Amino acid sequence: RWEGRYGEAFLSEVEGVACRTYQLCCRDPALDGIGAAEPASGLPEPASGDSLFGGVGPTCFASPEGAADEVAVAAQDPSAPSFCALVSGASLTLDPAPAVCAALDQWVDGFESSACQADFCTHGVDGYVQFVDLCVSFVRTNALVMGAALSVLVLLQLVLVVNLYDLQRRFYKPHLNRRVAVGPVYSPTAHCSDRPCAGSTTWGAARGKGALHGPL
């Protein structure tokens, strides 16, 4: 879908998250509680997900024999474990938090998880497309509010960074001034261990021998 477009990798991952959100919020709970359920109206009998891609439970469509046929069916079956990877091309498998379903119910107009779950198998991939359209419409409608909220968040972070920098300078400057006032410890004979220093009368003492010599 996004091949050849600017930012195709990022867009694919975003759609992958949206797809996994659809699977999380709209998957029919009956699929998880059955081993061999009655077929949905007008659709093949749900099949356990022991397919080429590895399943985690019953799926809406029965998996046919053959890799090519299995890929084609999985791309049309939103309950298939490989559905999101096939539809979006996303490589990551980050799962959204379960709380996002309640947020969608409350904020997204036209979305009801109960109705979405009831039509999960019946609508197939069309149900997923409708879900994406609802989410895109929600983002477009509330883009100004969301942008303002993000701007306020960034502004607060900048204020925090400036305050931390000012605090660091306030405590570090007195410490630096104390170091400058004290100065480094310097021994005038530290560099005279192997030769007499000009004007020194303690050449022997500088070498630790205790012998006194006159100036050179």
TrEMBL record:
**What are the transmembrane regions?**
143-165
What keywords appear on the UniProt entry? Membrane, Transmembrane, Transmembrane helix
Under which name does UniProt file this protein? Uncharacterized protein
Superkingdom in the source lineage: Eukaryota
Give the originating organism: Coccolithus braarudii
